[in-house]
Each structure stands twice: as C-alpha cells, then as structure tokens.
Amino acid sequence: MAAASLGCRPWGSLLGLLGLVAAAAAAWDLTSLHCHFGAFCECDFQPDFQGLECDLAQHLAGQHLAKALVVKALKAFVQDPAPTKPLVLSLHGWTGTGKSYVSSLLAHYLFRGGLHSPHVHHFSPVIHFPHASHLERYKKELKSWVQGNLTACSRSLFLFDEMDKLAPGLMEVLRPFLGSSWVVFGTNYRKAIFIFISNTGGEQINQVALEAWRSRRDREEIRLQELELVISQAVLDNPHHGFWHSGIMEEHLLDVLVPFLPLQRHHVRHCVLNELAQLGLEPREEVIQAVLDSTTFFPEKEQLFSSNGCKTVASRIAFFL
C-alpha cells in the first residue's frame, strides 16, 4: 500500500532516510535562516501531528509503546504555551527496532526543514566526539553550541545518537539545560526538545518480551511499568553510557523512557512490504521470503526475534531483486 493512500507525506526509501540522518550529523550550522535572537521565536517549527501519527502507524512495526509514548509526550509539550522545562526523551532498545527512524520522523514532522533545519542538531560520537582525550574541549564546545542555538531559537531539537559510545562526563554539561530552572546562562531553553538514543536496556527489554511470549501474553499487553525500572537500572549500571555519573538519571531529568521491543518475523515482513512500496514495487512473495530466510533470529531455541530488527531489510531487498 502506498503512503499516499493513508494521507501520509511521501518519504522515499527508509535507507535514504537514514542516509539523511548521517548527512545531518556531519553538518553543524550555527546560522539561523529564519529568526534572530528569538527567546520566544518559533523559527521553522511547524508541528504536523496528523502526519507523524499516520507515518508511525504505517511504517513503525511492532512498537505500540513507542508510538503512544512519543506522540502523547510531544502533544502535551507542544500544546503547553509555557513549559517549565524542556522535553527530554530517552529511546532504548535492540538494534534495528526503529529508534533512529522515529527520531528522524520527529525532525521531519516538527520542523519545516526536517533534518536540514538549522534548528535540528544531530550529534554522533564517532563524528563529533571521537577522541576521549579531548573530553574537556568537547564539553566546552557542546555547552557553547547548545547555549548559542537556544539563544537563536528556543524551539530547537537536539538528537544524541549512540549514547553507549559517548565518553563518560560529556553529558554533565547538559544537566543545567534539562531541568526546571527558568533561565540558564541567559538563554530561554524551556521549549527545546532533547532526544537521547541508545541500545542500553535492549537485552532487558528483550527478556521481558520473551517472558511475555512464553506466558502467552499479547505483545500489546506489555506496559511501560514493566520496563521502566529495568531500563533505568541498565543505564545506571553501564559505565560506557553517556549518562554515567552525569546526574541526569539521578536527578530524574528524563521525562519519558521510550522502550523499543524486539521485532518478530511478521514485523520484519511488514518492513519488507513497506520498503518494496517505497521503491514503487509490487509485493513479491519470493523476495519477501528470501529476505526473511536470510534474517537471523534468536533465542536459538525459539527463533523468535530478529537479531538486526529491520536494519538490513533495504540492503537485503536490493540483493534479492
């Protein structure tokens, strides 16, 4: 089914979308094209919740919790004319379950320029913070970057990818920006959105999903309360996570922990169908089955969850066409 049939904005290939994420990560542009010195400036912030919900419903497979939590948190935040703190989301789950895809959708449906908006800032440890020995310089630069961009536009989105690979200590410079103070370093920051992405907690989420399956519980019956504590503990126990000893978890500065469940065979099939539709191709059962047969599933006995989620679907389809 084509995206247009549900009224969704056409996207193109999911692989192409993730390519845009990588391109945006490499570009740090301090220049605002749409506003100047705007403590209350909305810049190119134009939320489209109908488009976001449509895209999530059609393309994000197997993530009832993530869909509900992200949309609910965003709506409440954006509709509040005077929030007391920024919105801080932390996305957790196994590789290929949709974390980067969701963050890309948020940029696309919140800002007119999407990932290319001067008010969307995407940070990658490999690109922006590659050397642990340069930690103090990175801390100064990150603090200055966030402060400067929030001065330019209070409606800014900051995406931090691969939190598992960040040097411990870097994130502590963000702590003053994430709380409920009214003014930080002379900037208006309460309308900003911070999104942190990591695989930490993925194993714990997988275990909860596996136990639910073994108990013959519906996947959709899994609730946030079952996952929140184990994810938090996994982060606090991980010395390689960017939140390690940053005070961000300890001071409860995260508004929502968003769990991404492991994907089963029918979810991967859904991803294959979506990718074929985005390529303008009719569903071909031999291609779908070839992709599924080439996908590794775990645990060894049950063969229940995809080891890479939907991460390699686009490349595998190209191989079997």
Automatic annotation (TrEMBL):
Residues 1-26 form the signal peptide. GO terms for cellular component: endoplasmic reticulum lumen; nuclear envelope. The keyword S-adenosyl-L-methionine does not apply. Keywords: ATP-binding, Endoplasmic reticulum, Glycoprotein, Nucleotide-binding, Signal. Coiled coil: none annotated. Residues 85-227 form the AAA+ ATPase domain. ATP binds at residues 93-100. GO terms for molecular function: ATP binding; ATP hydrolysis activity; identical protein binding. InterPro entries: AAA+_ATPase (IPR003593), ClpA/B (IPR001270), P-loop_NTPase (IPR027417), TOR1A_C (IPR049337), Torsin (IPR010448), Torsin_1/2 (IPR017378). It is found in: Endoplasmic reticulum lumen. Belongs to the ClpA/ClpB family. Torsin subfamily. This is Torsin.
